């Protein structure tokens, strides 16, 4: 999407607080405003171009009256109707060397590994995650001082 497309000045959202489009509490209001917008079709086309290939979890806010997952469903349907193969996930992973060992239990990294693999979380990992959360809320960083 260019800096300003010719239809953008006529969009209802131009004169509104941008938070309305991203707060869950305002979702119904945002949808109603989009429903009365004279350029919602152009908006939808522009946002689908901008979000092309993004996963549903990476599409945020209300655009053209649709949530991110709703726009992702339109994107998938358009790909399917055009015969285009579904896109592979864009997850980037570091290559693991032959000596790679997963983080030991009792660390926040191990807690996150358990969750991502659907494994049961042990008490040591749960405690390490809670400690990291407390540290983050106090300091803005989950890095613990040396010696802890």
TrEMBL record:
The keyword RNA-binding does not apply. InterPro entries: 4FE4S_WBL (IPR034768), Whib (IPR003482). Residues 12-73 form the 4Fe-4S Wbl-type domain. Residues 72-91 have a biased composition (Basic and acidic residues). Keywords: 4Fe-4S, Disulfide bond, DNA-binding, Iron, Iron-sulfur, Metal-binding, Transcription, Transcription regulation. This is WhiB family transcriptional regulator. Its cofactor is [4Fe-4S] cluster. Belongs to the WhiB family. One of its GO terms (molecular function) is 4 iron, 4 sulfur cluster binding. GO terms for cellular component: cytoplasm. Residues 55-122 are annotated as: Disordered. It is found in: Cytoplasm. It comes from Streptomyces tagetis. One of its GO terms (biological process) is cell redox homeostasis. It comes from the Bacteria. Pfam families: Whib.
């Amino acid at each position: 999407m260019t800096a300003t497309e010719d239809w953008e000045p006529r969009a209802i959202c131009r004169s509104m607080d941008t938070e309305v489009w991203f707060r869950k509490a305002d979702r119904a209001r945002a949808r109603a405003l989009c429903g009365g917008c004279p350029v919602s079709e152009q908006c939808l086309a522009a946002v689908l171009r901008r979000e092309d290939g993004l996963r549903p979890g990476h599409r945020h806010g209300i655009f053209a009256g649709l949530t991110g997952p709703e726009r992702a469903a339109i994107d998938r349907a358009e790909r399917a109707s055009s015969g285009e193969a579904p896109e592979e996930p864009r997850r980037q992973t570091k290559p693991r060397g032959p000596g790679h060992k997963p983080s030991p239990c009792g660390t926040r990294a191990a807690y996150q590994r358990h969750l991502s693999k659907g494994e049961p979380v042990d008490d040591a990992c749960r405690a390490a995650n809670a400690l990291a959360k407390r540290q983050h809320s106090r300091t803005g960083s989950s890095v613990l001082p040396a010696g802890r």
